[in-house]
Write a structure and sequence with these properties.
Number of helices: 9
CATH topology of the largest domain: Rossmann fold
Number of domains: 2
Distance between the termini: 16 Å
Largest sheet: 5 strands, parallel
Order of helices and strands: EHEHHEHEHEHHEEEHEEH
Strand content: 15-25%
CATH architecture of the largest domain: 3-Layer(aba) Sandwich
Mean pLDDT: 88
């Protein structure tokens, strides 16, 4: 059953050594949406530079990311482990710049620092030192949280997200559109078959964002991350997945690459829609 809701963009800010935590943040947000969005009339949309930025020239890369993504975000989740990232003109790193500019706008930011063990010969000592400097500067400016494992991070972030949405004024006084027959959000969710939703979701979680469609004598493969989603050679089953592929192309959620129609890639819109899908 459809319903009206207001979308809030949630920025995930982190260096490259916490990819697992970035995935956990997205999964927790999807779970929150699945449980709470109908009752609260709120949809949380996880946003990151890798899925929501597009090529642009004429300014520094971080400035473009700030303009394309950060300026449109309502809540920021920052996560660190052993790296702080690449320095920008005025900040210790692009991630720090995103956090500081978000805070300057008076918007809520939740920061997490990993205390998981690491082999010291694998880390950059300069990165560690600059990260410690930033962490020390945060001690007098608010509250942050440490965690010692991925499961500990997931448990803590899930609980903290509940508290933040329940208690922060940003999420209070929400008045969704009165037309209950449509879901109103910054990015409307198109009508997709269950196969199309699964295909888009899994492709969006693959680092390459690619879907491979290969037909051979006696076999048909629709692959994401090396996994064939077509588990039967029965024509009825294959037809459903081929239709799913066509749906995603029609809605401009994926693009065909190459001349043979065997490779598809998730579009920027596709990533946005995938972030709204809870399987």
């Amino acid at each position: 059953m459809s319903y009206s809701a207001v979308t809030f963009n949630v920025m995930i800010a982190s260096p490259g050594d916490v990819a697992s935590e970035r995935a956990i943040v997205r999964d927790v947000i999807y779970e929150w949406n699945a449980v709470n969005s109908n009752a609260r009339k709120i949809v949380l949309l996880p946003v990151g530079w890798e899925s929501h930025s597009s090529p642009e020239m004429g300014a520094a890369p971080q400035a473009i990311i700030n303009n394309q993504i950060l300026a449109k975000c309502d809540l920021l989740i920052g996560v660190f482990w052993t790296r702080i990232g690449t320095a920008t003109d005025d900040y210790l790193s692009g991630t720090v710049e995103e956090i500081e500019k978000h805070i300057e706008l008076g918007r809520p930011a939740m920061l997490y620092f990993s205390s998981q063990p690491v082999a010291m010969e694998t880390v950059d000592l300069d990165q560690i030192a600059r990260l410690k400097s930033f962490k020390d500067s945060c001690r007098t400016r608010g509250l942050y949280q440490s965690y010692d494992s991925h499961s500990d991070f997931k448990d803590k972030f899930y609980r903290h997200l509940q508290l933040k949405v329940n208690e922060h004024s940003l999420f209070h006084g929400i008045t969704p559109p009165t037309n209950s027959s449509t879901v109103e959000s910054k990015t409307p969710l198109p009508a997709l078959s269950s196969e199309a939703r699964i295909l888009l979701k899994q492709a969006s979680q693959d680092p390459t964002g690619q879907i491979l469609y290969v037909r051979a004598i006696g076999s048909t493969h629709l692959q994401v991350s090396g996994k064939n989603l077509i588990q039967s050679e029965e024509r009825r089953v294959i037809a459903k997945w081929e239709q799913a592929l066509q749906e995603l192309v029609r809605e401009r959620l994926i693009l065909a690459r190459g001349s043979k129609g065997e490779v598809y890639e998730v579009t920027n819109l596709g990533y946005q829609i995938a972030d709204m899908i809870a399987l």
